[in-house]
Write a structure and sequence with these properties.
Length: 395
């Protein structure tokens, strides 16, 4: 294959690295909540400086091109690894290994410049450190704890893995090759890793933007299914989750139980104490509901002062215990004013039978709730309403 001009290659890589680094840094200013992006951006600027010193080979002192450029380049990739560790919420152990590896790298560069001058060995040593750091980055991207879209995640991991491979091959070939006198006249063995690094820099920037976009999309989706006041699921969240609950019947040998809850005399609380106190009452009640239900139960703010609770795979007797637990917990909420009566809640419970869908379950629970209101509030009624009422009132 025809050789490329090494000075041109280094200029292109340095220029693109700087442009993408600055662009990623501006992107970080708009998305400061995501850790590590700023470090990756700074690392790309460092890489640009390191490769730019190679471009200036022959116009600046030789030790700057031979020693400082390699240290800045390898240090930049170590910083990039640390930024990826932060973004992927991964252990920084591999980053520490890469950072400590800069010490023997610096000593080797000194030795093979001032004592036993060998351009091949210096380049092979730097390639080895770069390859190890890039391999570490590949591992961190795959093993990180943060949840990300798999396609950009594995695309970025593949890019780091492939460039790491080119660095290892370069180090192996340099050890066996004849000594190079003029680095600026280097052939494809040196040029291909630089071009692959340019590809990696672009892939890193694009993949990070892709990954952040995925997190933002999931964040918006999560907000859209949650109630702003209570953080319980809203009606949209109910539609999304109930489809999963009602369709996955193979894992639910026991029926679905639905509870419809309503805060008693809530309009009077709003009228007497104001809507801010009313909102706080709703928040307090939602907190007690969340504390009383199981992890796989679904609590929903159904509307206003009404709450809907779905208990999959639950015996009716257990659902009754949960309902009474909620009722007692709400009744014992500390009062916001001395003149305020104890907060109470009425609950209607319905159990799924053959042929029932969610709408019919909610209708039955609503009828039971109406019966609880009719019977004096602060009680639990199980549908159908002709069944014996389960009631417990505080004096």
């Amino acid at each position: 294959m025809p050789d490329l001009d090494m000075r041109t290659v280094s200029f292109l890589v340095s220029f693109l690295s700087f442009i993408f680094g600055v662009g990623l840094l501006f992107f970080h200013f708009e998305q400061k909540n995501f850790k590590g992006i700023n470090l990756v951006a700074i690392s790309q600027i460092c890489m640009s400086i390191g490769i730019g010193l190679i471009f200036l080979l022959g116009k600046i002192p030789m030790w700057v091109s031979a020693l400082l450029s390699n240290m800045i380049l390898c240090g930049g990739f170590t910083l990039c690894l640390y930024g990826i560790c932060q973004y992927r919420d991964a252990c920084s152990r591999l980053c520490k290994i890469s950072l400590l590896g800069l010490i023997p790298l610096f000593l080797a560069l000194l030795y093979f410049y001032f004592i036993e001058n060998s351009l091949n060995t210096r380049a092979a040593t730097a390639s080895l450190h770069l390859g190890i750091t890039q391999l570490f980055a590949c591992i961190v991207i795959v093993k990180g704890k943060a949840f990300d879209n798999p396609l950009p995640q594995y695309t970025l991991a593949l890019a780091f893995g492939l460039v790491s491979l080119t660095m290892f091959i370069r180090a192996l070939l340099l050890i066996q090759a004849d000594e190079l006198n003029q680095y600026i006249q280097a052939g494809w063995v040196h040029q291909i890793p630089y071009l692959s690094s340019m590809f990696l820099i672009m892939a890193t920037s694009f993949s990070l933007v892709w990954l952040v976009n995925g997190r933002l999309t999931r964040s918006v989706e999560a907000l859209s299914i949650r109630d702003n006041l209570t953080s319980l699921y809203n009606r949209r969240g109910m539609d999304k989750l109930t489809n999963q609950i009602t369709t996955d019947k193979s894992k639910q040998p026991l029926p679905l139980v639905v509870m419809m809850c309503d805060i008693d005399h809530f309009k009077s609380i709003n009228d007497q104490f104001g809507h801010l106190v009313g909102d706080q009452v709703i928040v307090n009640v939602s907190e007690q509901i969340q504390a009383c239900v199981r992890v796989n139960d679904v609590a929903i703010r159904y509307g206003g002062e009404e709450f809907l609770i779905l208990l999959p795979n639950t015996p009716l007797a257990n659902a009754h215990i949960v309902a009474e637990r909620i009722r007692n917990a709400v009744y014992n909420i500390p009062l916001h004013h001395q003149n305020m009566s104890p907060i109470s809640i009425s609950i209607g419970v319905s159990q799924q039978h053959k042929g029932d869908n969610l709408d019919s379950l909610i209708r039955e629970a609503d009828k039971a709730l109406y019966q609880a209101k009719k019977n004096g509030r602060n009680c639990v009624v199980i549908a159908p309403c002709e069944c014996e009422e389960i009631r417990l009132k505080h004096a």
